[in-house]
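Appendix B, record 7
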Amino acid sequence: MQATAPTPEIPRSARETLLAEQGGLAGFLQPDVNLNAPRYFVQLGFSMASLPSHAVPSARLWRGEIAPCRTIAVVDSILAIPETARIPGSERAGADGKIATASYRSYAYYEAERILSDEASSAKKSTIFEIKSLRSDLGDRVYRELDVTKLFFPDWPNMPERNEDVGRFLADRLEVITASPPRDIPPEVQSQVMDILRGVGAELIEIARKTQEIQREEIVYTHHCMRMEPKEERYKPRYDSRDYEILKRTGLPQVDEAELQTAQSLNILAKQATGSGGDNAALLKLVESQQEANALLRMQLEQQGQALQILLAERQSAKTEAPAAEAPKNQPPKGK
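Structure tokens (predicted):
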């Protein structure tokens, strides 16, 4: 039987190989990225947020300040840096006189993506957001030539305390900026620059709204934990400095004072209690009974308040209707 010749392999082009590696569709291809291009960030929820990177100046984000994330030099062991990645002349000797460290470039793109990734994975958000409207060559020029932070917050670092007030303030500022563009914008790029500034303003307003949502959710959860019993794992006996700032930003009231005092008493008892402490157990039961009484009293006060509001509304309605019925008697006769 005659053997058949093997079918020759049909070569695949480099383009086909690339498309296959990217999922088979051209739409999955990533556009070229300028790794050195600065990215811009802001946070509105806290007086200051620390960052694990000096790509943002001072590794801090002050509230309301729009700050750049840049390419930086990172020092590391000489053994950990590929020779082609070392910055020439950055080598430094150790105590023994041998080269021990060098520097490499950590590009703005990777630093920015790490900041966003850390924020997304954090259980307690720092309310850090990127201003995407500045992510372009012209956006970078706008940031460098115009003080964008003070354009939207003229009295920075002084700002409204509450997130909702910040949102309203920004909406007003955006109207002012749109009606009266900055004088320093060259006429040939004024239209494009104003598009960028309007985009920045819209993003800041949305960031204020998202910050309110994030911080409201956190403080509501904190109040839930403060109402737990001390023996429960997530129990929280009192506010910390972060909680107080979130209360200020959200405008939400503190947990009921009676509940707070009861929670603190329960926490003290839990620390003092021992397995055989009969007196402590009795006192703990007494405090828990007081907690229930506080809740019942608060509910009664709320019901009384609602009833009083209804009564006042009915009286006000009666007062406004009576003059309306008598008004025609006081009108002058027609024709005079």
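Remarks on this record: Confidence is low (pLDDT under 50) at residues 25-29, 324-336. The first strand starts at residue 39 and ends at 43.
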